[in-house]
Amino acid sequence: MSDLAGMDRPSLLKPQREVPHVHEPKVANKSTPYWWEAAPVMPLPPQPLARTVDVAIVGAGYAGLSAGLALAREGRSVAAFDAMNPGEGASSRNGGITSGSIRLDYATITRRFGEEKAMAIEAEGKVAREFLYDFIKSEKLDCDFQLVGLFKGAIGYEQYEKMARGAEALARKLGIESYAVPYAKQRDYVGTDFYRGGMVRMDIGGLHPAKFHAELLRVALASGLAVHSNTPVTSIERDSSGFRVATSAGTVQARQVLVCTNGYTDGANPFLRRRLVPVRSRIIATEELAPELMARLMPKRMMMGEGRELGFYYRPSPDGRRILLGGRDSSRAGDPAAPTLRLRNGLGEIFPELENVRLSHSWFGNVAMHRDMLPRIFEKDGVVYATGFCGSGVVWAPWVGTRAAHKLMGHGEQARTAFDFRPPAAVPFYRGNPWFIPAVIKGYALQDRIAWWRASR
Ligand SMILES: Cc1cc2nc3c(=O)[nH]c(=O)nc-3n(C[C@H](O)[C@H](O)[C@H](O)COP(=O)(O)OP(=O)(O)OC[C@H]3O[C@@H](n4cnc5c(N)ncnc54)[C@H](O)[C@@H]3O)c2cc1C
């Protein structure tokens, strides 16, 4: 039972006032990630290419490095290749929210994969988050991690009731500290009247994503992992002793291969490219705000999410001086101003006080979506893949990458995961040009408008 009963329900469900579009030629000072100010991504010193290795890893983001670390610590010779600077993919650009969420709801997972699998997937989110937190602590990773909790805002009372039931189920089934927040108490969590209450879960926090990647790279290199930056893998061919992995720096013979390219998968892997669709996600950062304003808008310094399909996620910067807000970006080329303006208007809808705030940074990166919408390990023609994180890889990529490493080493128990199953289905008529993304995003926006309309009836 939720605590709405008897509450004074304000009837206004739309944003209190229409926010005019901002017409400024310059929407943010910088188009590089705010995170790179403290932890810039950099090339590694060139090093000779080993002729043979036990394992070759394609991609040196969170997934590739976590796998490489686990393998190297077990004495395997491992070379990881990245087409860019390590971390320059999504792993140094993200919001740093340790959500570990799954885009499919429990009912859909149960319908598709059965009750047992659905339960296992739900329970694994908790284990994967704890794995990340233990890893940060035990390795003493300097990445501004704070387990502050997450508030998720409801766009109407129906959604609030659903969230309240969800919070109660999380606490009962998984022992996660989670609870509903009625509208009357909302301002204790977020300085806005935009939502109609929400829910809190205390098992989610925030980290500095680029520092986390840099620290992961540090421990992986110290463990003996060879990381080759700006060295794309151009083909992988099977032969009698394993695989011939061709890179821009030469060819290496590998007994096993792990692919961790997620939203940056290129034409070198046409099989994966037909299955993962890169979708842009964008984040804006405000300039520094007054401490009193920050204390009013984000009193508990929590991570923030929303119940909308195309909802925003937002958070304070680790030093508590700025707000960073992210959301989908339907552009496919260049760096147009419109997506930044959409996010900026969204920020102004939530916090009217920030309507005219200046932005210091606006940047985007790719997340990988696919038809099954579940992160996964799978195998195809002997190559193992750890990928498909659907915008929630801060928790999933280290977890799935590490499980994939144990799978390669034949470790039964440590490799066990509910995410080890078949390859995702190919996307029909898709060969690497996601022409349909703007239409899909418009579809979600329409669903959100309908939800607003229903909530305000
Ligand atoms: C703007 C944004 C916000 C996000 N916010 C959050 C968040 O708050 N919380 C959350 O959980 N997740 C978030 N994510 C998602 C998260 O960042 C990713 O899921 C995660 O970083 C994926 O890690 P990865 O190692 O699989 O891939 P990546 O970090 O993307 O690394 C893949 C690497 O593969 C390399 N590569 C590709 N092809 C080749 C090739 N042929 N040869 C060699 N290398 C190759 C690329 O250069 C790239 O560096 C966000 C993502 C973005 C873009």
TrEMBL record:
Q: Where is the FAD dependent oxidoreductase domain?
A: 54-405
Give one Pfam hit by family name: DAO
Which molecular function term from Gene Ontology is one that the record holds? oxidoreductase activity
Domain of life (superkingdom): Bacteria
**Keyword terms of this UniProt record:** Oxidoreductase
List every stretch annotated Disordered.
1-20
Q: Name one GO cellular component term.
A: cytoplasm
User: What's the protein here called?
Assistant: Glycine/D-amino acid oxidase
Starting at the broadest rank, the lineage of the source organism is:
Bacteria, Pseudomonadati, Pseudomonadota, Alphaproteobacteria, Hyphomicrobiales
